[in-house]
Amino acid sequence: MAVSRLFKRFCGLHRANARIQACPPGYIHRRALSDSQVFNNGDDTVLPVLIVGAGPVGLVLSILLTKLDFEQVVSPASVAHFSQYKLISLLLKQLENLSFKLCMSNELEGFNHGPFQERQLLMGHECVSIKANDDFISVTASFLKDGKRMERNIRCNIVVGTDGAGSTVRKLAGIDMRGKRDLQKLVSVHFSSRDLGKYLLSERPGMLFFIFNTEAIGVLVAHDLKQGEFVLQIPFYPPQQNLEDFSPEICEELIFKLVGRELSDINVIDIKPWVMHAEVAEKFISCGNRIILAGDAAHRFPPAGGFGMNTGIQDSHSLAWKIASVVKDIAPSSILHTYETERRPIAIFNTELSIQNFKAAMTVPAALGLDPTVANSVHQVINEGVGSILPSGLQRAILDGIFTIGRAQLSESLLNEKNPLGSSRLANLRRIFEEGKSLQLQFPAEDLGFRYLEGALIPDTDDALGAPEGPTGRRRDYVPSVVPGSRLPHMNVTILSNSSSEVTFSTLDLISGDKIEFLLIIAPTDLSYHLARAAFKVAKEFKVSARVCVLWPAGSVKQVEAGSKALLTPWENYIDVVEVKKSSNPSSWWDLCQMTDKGAILVRPDEHVAWRVKSGVVGDPITEMRRVFSATLGLKPHNRRDQEADQ
């Protein structure tokens, strides 16, 4: 089919050093995608989806979209601290396993001729313009070839901007950001030193080091102590300071001052300035469902808590199955609106939380007499107030003098128990740590416990939880939940069979990553089997895959003759599993879900609960399943049946 051929031609567009050539107002024609002819009737020159941006969010979205055709599922991973460039390397390898080809501009022979090749990752390209007409979007990619600047137009139906905080796609689409700008300017220094790594491993093992002394101030992130890989963040105050003030040699000296020793093997790899913002795009979708933002292009946070990449990858999970549903003509393009409905409130919440966590981190230097807000205020006065009329050299001298006085607050003669002021500051510092009011590094309640209040789901009519509370500034435990919009909770299970071998896996592994498939979890009861058969029938009507998981209680007899086969035949896409309880958590699956074994849970392809019933369906289960699938996929209840009748 044409849609299948086109979908296999979906690609990612890599960008490097993107430059922005803004389109005039109204340059993007806003027209909704046609629900009946979304993808141009077999035109091989028009891609269904073009992803601009090759960071973790864009690469994860590429993998998820590709897997929603034919590739194998990737199991969930545990929490880890992992540098971004290493993650990107792993994601690129995964895409290569999915038959993607990495192409440099000088390798593209005949680039301006013929349709775009399937599954290409374009390296060193810039998105410079976006145009839209009634049939497709044309994206102009700029690149260097043999020393000459060249361009090529790529036609597609949907453009997904995952091109970072300074997103070209967002600016070309005319989408504004809302929030707090210029919280802090910094210089990021990526360097290596096995000598420093060895020292910290033996003396002060850790991941994040806030360093304050009379000579320098900075935050050291230890990405890999064994390999000696670090990133140093240094406050930056332009225009009195400029990037030339942070040469590799100067950065080496700063590192020596911060760590308190010279390092024999230091190697400065990269030096980049950046600005800390806390903003969310006013909308994530524009141009009639044709332009979509994800990751830092849609939201940018202070790096306090690791919300940036995590939130962006969550965006990809919510978006991938919805784009795939439109591509495969399972759902209308209006389902893409649920992406913004679901993800934008999460982005706003995480923005507030990251700001709060950033402020908590700043309480430590403030307690030591180094209030960052004072430094920023002084800098602003120099730039915009009376100081702005002074010669640039004098401005810099004033700024350096103020910083020297500030760092003097950290001298041993002042910061000690015998000095009343120093003793008071140290007491305040101890109180901050003891009360847990400093920087938090793990947020299980927010990373795992976030939920969508509306979108591609059917809310509970008796939802007692209501809207989630705002950021509290205190670490909260993750409480598993199957309220619609929540992530499916984890429990270890094993397959119910007459085999002696037992392979334990997670309930999360029951979700297919290979296709658009909904999972119905039930207990082995007669009414639930009746519901499962109804779900299979309705899913077939809606041309979507459904899988049934029959979850048996722990201690169920392993030697079974048929399991659920007799009750679910002729349907075959089901699995019988048994709870594997841990002594530390004796609760059953249904206790964990705060439901009875008469209930049922329908899970979306992105592991979020779409619908649940606590104590069995009242009325006709087929009617209920039609209502559920229609609402989740954004279809009118009669549409799919009418299509079947017409055929």
Proportion of beta-strand residues? 15-25%
Sheet with most strands: 7 strands, mixed
- Given as residue ranges, the uncertain stretches (5+ residues, pLDDT < 50) are 1-38, 70-76, 110-114, 639-647
The total beta strand count reads: 21
Instruction: Give the CATH topology of the largest domain.
Output: FAD/NAD(P)-binding domain
**Helix residue percentage:** 25-40%
The total tally of domains equals 3
Shape label: globular
What integer value in Å does the Rg equal? 28 Å
Brief overview:
The chain is built from 17 helices and 21 strands. It has three domains: 2-176 and 282-356, FAD/NAD(P)-binding domain (3-Layer(bba) Sandwich); 180-277 and 369-414, 2-Layer Sandwich (D-Amino Acid Oxidase, Chain A, domain 2), CATH 3.30.9; 492-646, 3-Layer(aba) Sandwich (Glutaredoxin), CATH 3.40.30.
Explain the overall architecture.
- This protein is an alpha/beta fold and 647 residues long.
- It folds into 3 domains: 2-176 and 282-356, 3-Layer(bba) Sandwich (FAD/NAD(P)-binding domain), CATH 3.50.50.60; 180-277 and 369-414, D-Amino Acid Oxidase, Chain A, domain 2; 492-646, Glutaredoxin, CATH 3.40.30.
- It contains 17 helices and 21 strands.
- The protein has helices spanning 2-7, 56-67, 84-97, 168-172, 194-203, 248-259, 307-327, 337-367, 372-384, 392-407, 420-434, 444-447, 526-541, 565-568, 589-592, 621-633, 639-646, and strands spanning 11-15, 46-52, 101-103, 120-132, 137-145, 148-161, 177-192, 208-212, 217-224, 229-235, 267-281, 285-286, 291-293, 299-300, 492-495, 504-506, 517-522, 545-552, 574-579, 600-603, 609-613.
- The strands form 3 sheets. Strands 16-15-19-18-17-20-21 form a 7-stranded mixed β-sheet, with helices on one face. Strands 8-9-10-7-11-14 form a 6-stranded antiparallel β-sheet, with helices on both faces.
- α14 (565-568) links the parallel β18 (545-552) and β19.
- α2 packs parallel to α3, α2 packs parallel to α7 (307-327) and α9 runs antiparallel to α10 (392-407).
- It is globular.
- The model is unreliable at 1-38, 70-76, 110-114 and 639-647 (pLDDT under 50).
